[in-house]
Amino acid sequence: MLSKRIIPCLDVKDGRTVKGVNFIDLKDAGDPVELAWQYAQQGADELVFLDITATHERRKTMIEMVKSVARQLNIPFTIGGGITTVQDAEALLNAGADKISINSAAVKNPELIEELARNFGVQFVVVAVDTKLVEGRNMVHLNGGRLITELETEDWIRKAEGLGAGEILLTSMDHDGTKQGFDCGLLNTITQMINIPVIASGGAGKVEHFIEVFEKTGVDAALAASVFHFGEIPIPDLKQKLKYHNIPVRL
Amino acid sequence: MIGIVNYGAGNIFSLTSALERQHLPYGMVNTEADLEKYTHIIIPGVGHAGAAMKKLEDTGLVEPIKALKKPVLGICVGMQLLTAHSEEGDATMMNIFPLQTRLFNKDQGIKIPHMGWNNIDHKNNSLFEGVENLTQFYFVHSYFIEYNPTFDIATANYGMPFSAAIHKDNFYGVQFHPEKSGIAGEHLLKNFSNLKQ
């Protein structure tokens, strides 16, 4: 049976992981390679790296980091952040990235999804969507939730699937950072509406939230950052508890 | 030493990295003469099967590969190339295995692509030596190889049973990505490198 995936997300700046990471055995918490390897050892099923570098050197630094990670890591990983062209994506693919995640570039230029899918296959293209409830409607937001678009979340996701997205990474900005649980209502609506895998993101605070999102919605994976980085939820414990609740996981 | 067929279908950095982690030496196969240099051959592949077959044909390596007597391993689309036909691009393939590569049927209530870690039920072929049965491997594909008891050496289930691995004479194929399948995947690559000619 296909397992539900647990995905730690790492923010990367200038080729270094940022946000405090609290692993006991870690020599260098800023080294993405060592961190990635540790997560793989713990049983993470996949990793997402989000590049938040703002300088013009970003692309070169990122390619080097992706290569270093690919050399060491024996599980799949996704790269997101600042990918706006087919050339950006191809460079990452050749450096060993399994998937790329696009967000605002896809909103601004939906044809990019189609182009990427045609060139590299739908399995390579993750469309990340940041959503926020505004006057009772779920609206797509950009810039970490600061900029509202005219797109309704459900419409945009349906369109992205049609254009060739292979997976949706849906982050609820209302839940992100609250540690009060995933947005199960919206995630359930979305998973019933489309036929590609969905990654739930935003709101994970305790083990019960992961159990809830897998029991109440059809999501394929759950992504979180701080609860893993600070060791609040050790991945082996999380997976044991999911298994206890008859949720298929890789142990 | 392992030779990797270099025909331009997808990236091979992850594969070469996995081989390096296992301290398995490798080189590239670009021409028919290169096939002689290696004891084992891997055909990688990501993307569109029809397009991949076209690229492989352009290298002129199809007939030389079919004539090989040394162990050959096709990975993902590289495995699908070994079948007779793929629904992806309605393409005629190498026909080493008289099998069909077909599109998953979403009417069975499954999401496409089949993406993630899935258990395999393997049949103790040397390729899986030391790999516990029902171990999970990493899959990412929309097309699959129909189950056939003659060639199947590992079965996975996604809406229906399909072949996760096949074997015929010196030819092997795996639908999952051993280079991305953790320790079990690395173990499988090592096993392949140990197969006798």
UniProtKB/TrEMBL annotation, chain A:
Catalyzes what?
5-[(5-phospho-1-deoxy-D-ribulos-1-ylimino)methylamino]-1-(5-phospho-beta-D-ribosyl)imidazole-4-carboxamide + L-glutamine = D-erythro-1-(imidazol-4-yl)glycerol 3-phosphate + 5-amino-1-(5-phospho-beta-D-ribosyl)imidazole-4-carboxamide + L-glutamate + H(+)
User: In the Enzyme Commission scheme, what number(s) does this protein have?
Assistant: 4.3.2.10
Top-level lineage group: Bacteria
Keywords in alphabetical order = Amino-acid biosynthesis, Cytoplasm, Histidine biosynthesis, Lyase
Whether Cytoplasm counts among this entry's keywords is: yes
Kindly give the InterPro entries that the UniProt entry links to this protein: Aldolase_TIM, His_biosynth, HisF, IGPS_HisA/HisF, RibuloseP-bd_barrel
CDD domains per the UniProt record, alphabetical = HisF
The protein's assembly and partners? Heterodimer of HisH and HisF.
Give the protein name, as stated in the record.
Imidazole glycerol phosphate synthase subunit HisF
The major lineage groups are:
Bacteria, Pseudomonadati, Bacteroidota, Sphingobacteriia, Sphingobacteriales
Automatic annotation (TrEMBL), chain B:
- Provide a GO biological process annotation: L-histidine biosynthetic process
Annotated pathway, please?
Answer: Amino-acid biosynthesis; L-histidine biosynthesis; L-histidine from 5-phospho-alpha-D-ribose 1-diphosphate: step 5/9
UniProt-listed Pfam families = GATase (PF00117)
- A cellular component term, taken from the record's GO annotations: cytoplasm
Q: Which UniProt keywords apply?
A: Amino-acid biosynthesis, Cytoplasm, Glutamine amidotransferase, Histidine biosynthesis, Hydrolase, Lyase, Transferase
So where's the catalytic machinery, residue-wise? Answer: 76, 177, 179
Enzymatic reactions: 5-[(5-phospho-1-deoxy-D-ribulos-1-ylimino)methylamino]-1-(5-phospho-beta-D-ribosyl)imidazole-4-carboxamide + L-glutamine = D-erythro-1-(imidazol-4-yl)glycerol 3-phosphate + 5-amino-1-(5-phospho-beta-D-ribosyl)imidazole-4-carboxamide + L-glutamate + H(+); L-glutamine + H2O = L-glutamate + NH4(+)
State which Enzyme Commission number(s) the record gives.
4.3.2.10, 3.5.1.2
Give its localization: Cytoplasm
Q: Where is the Glutamine amidotransferase domain?
A: 6-192
In which broad location class does this protein mainly occur, judging by the first location in its UniProt entry? Answer: cytoplasm
Instruction: Please list the GO terms describing molecular function.
Output: glutaminase activity; imidazoleglycerol-phosphate synthase activity; lyase activity
State the function annotated in the UniProt record.
IGPS catalyzes the conversion of PRFAR and glutamine to IGP, AICAR and glutamate. The HisH subunit catalyzes the hydrolysis of glutamine to glutamate and ammonia as part of the synthesis of IGP and AICAR. The resulting ammonia molecule is channeled to the active site of HisF.
Q: Could you describe the subunit structure of this protein?
A: Heterodimer of HisH and HisF.
Please give the name of this protein. Imidazole glycerol phosphate synthase subunit HisH
Q: Whose protein is this, by species?
A: Pedobacter steynii
Task: Name the lineage.
Answer: Bacteria, Pseudomonadati, Bacteroidota, Sphingobacteriia, Sphingobacteriales
